[in-house]
Amino acid sequence: MAALTVSRILHAGYVFECAGTRIAFDTIFENPFSRNCHAFPDVRFDAASIRQQRFDAVFISHFHDDHCSLESLDLLDRATPLYLYCLFDELFDMVRELGFTRVHALRLDEPVIVGPFQVVPREAMDAEVDSMFQIRAAGFNVLNVVDSWIDDAALARLVAEKPWDLVLWPFQTMREIEVLAPSRAAPAPPALPDEWLAQLAALDPRHVVPSSCQFVLEPWSWYNRAFFPISYALFAQQVGAALPRARVVRMNPSVSMRLDADGLHPAPPLDWVIPVGDQDVDYVYAGNADAPPTSDIARHFPALTQDQWTQVLDFCRATLLDNYADTEAGCEFFDRPRVWQLSIYDHEGAVTRFRYRLEDGSAVHAGAADGPPGWTTDVPAAKLYAALALGESLTSMYVRINDAVFDADTERDLAEADVVDDPLIRCLFSDGFGAYQRAQLRRLLGR
Cross-referenced InterPro entries, in alphabetical order (predicted)? Predict the structure, then answer.
């Protein structure tokens, strides 16, 4: 009987096997990955065994560091065909510099044939960043949504591809923006977005796997109670109610399932993904409760060396001014002069503050005569250094924005502002494509 085996690596990573051909998606073999995302449930990886694996192709959905990691790719044979969806040539250059010789750019709706597999990149809501994958093999039809959102036009095209035997659905709504300003963000209800249930009902799959967002941060991190409103149990309950004919199947890291005409059945797990501890853990959501001050958070991180601290200070004193002038304002809030206060907390919780006057797209150091701040940003020194030197992303930097009460006029204006227009975020990430991968490549080539 024809069959397709699907195995979970971690997060959005999967191995598909059919008739002796093996392909993989979004291969992350690190824990933690993205510097600060700890596998949930916990796993470790057998790097030596992974180096012995041979894949007939690897597909990467987009350039985000929790999907495209050069340190994970470094474990693969350099002759492995890599297929990347990315609009930036720099990523292809970096992968080739790592030594891969068969690197291909994916185009939306253009199928790639690998043995019995047909893999078709499908358009996601943000087509400049993401893609989804439709995988056909052995007569089965699988949709790997990765961690994309789907608009109405894309959904209509996917519905036209029915029937779906299996949908890998990104089950978490991450609150990575809301936690930046917890005193100003309303707690999200612990429920799936209505459009998700409607979209899944329209796709009408036989089986649904809650996929992606399979991580937590450090054990002490308040983000673990604030990032993820949806538990595995809640996903199964709500999807099961909306799709009574579908079977919801949780696949932890290493778990393999065999898809055949009769359904999904357990298969031997990946022996190079090794479960650690309890695998039946679930998320617990507490909204914005107990968000500690940045001074307390900073005490969890090690002290910077003198050279590292100097790099942070040089950035705040000079480089930041140039970077801000090179970025484009993202909202009307900064169309008028503002005083911005940036607070850097060291490993003892001590603060070093900088004040800037922002006006006409430029930043200069501000004095007391410039008045009180109209925007504030707090960040641990260790995390600011990591963003500058190691490519750390905003998700795990513990930036805290506007955790203060301003004058009435400023508060009125802030109601229309977007926290991601924060000046520090603009200076660090406005022109930061591939910073994480570039930092990885430097380390790998410098071994």
Answer: RibonucZ/Hydroxyglut_hydro
Tell me which of 210, 241, 275 is where a domain ends: 275
| Residue 324 within a domain | yes
Q: Are the beta carbons of 81 and 100 closer than 8 angstroms?
A: no
- 375 with 298, same domain: the answer is yes
Q: Letter for the amino acid at 272?
A: W
**Measured distance CA(310)–CA(306) in Å, rounded:** 6
Q: In terms of Cα–Cα distance, which of 447, 359, 425, 445 is closest to 181? A: 425
Question: Residue 34 CB: number of other CB atoms within 10 A?
Answer: 21
Q: Is 324 exposed, middle or buried (0-12, 13-18, 19+ CB in 10 A)?
A: buried
Q: Is 361 helix (H, G, I), strand (E, B) or coil?
A: coil
Same domain, yes or no, for 261 and 341?
A: no
Which residues, in sequence order, are bridge partners of residue 260?
Answer: 263
Q: Is the pTM of this model over 0.85?
A: yes
**Tokens encoding 201:** 């009902």
User: In Å, how far from its chain's centre is CA 187?
Assistant: 21
Residue 286 lies in a domain: no
190: which DSSP letter? S
Residues facing residue 256 across a β-bridge: 7, 267
Does any domain span residue 92?
yes
| Mean pLDDT, each 10-residue run in order, the chain (447 residues) | 92 97 98 93 98 98 95 98 96 97 98 98 94 97 96 97 98 92 88 95 98 93 93 96 97 97 96 97 88 97 98 97 83 90 98 96 93 97 95 92 95 92 91 83 92
- Whole-number CA gyration radius for the chain: 23
Q: Which helix (H) or strand (E) holds 376?
A: strand 375-380
**What is the crossing angle of helices 152-159 and 194-203, to 10°?**
20
Q: Is 105 a member of any domain?
A: yes
Domain count along the chain: 2
Residue 224 to residue 218: CA distance in whole angstroms: 8
Q: Yes or no: say if 127 and 101 are a contact pair by the CB < 8 Å rule.
A: no
Q: 90: domain CATH number?
A: 3.60.15.10
Place of tokens 């993202």: 330
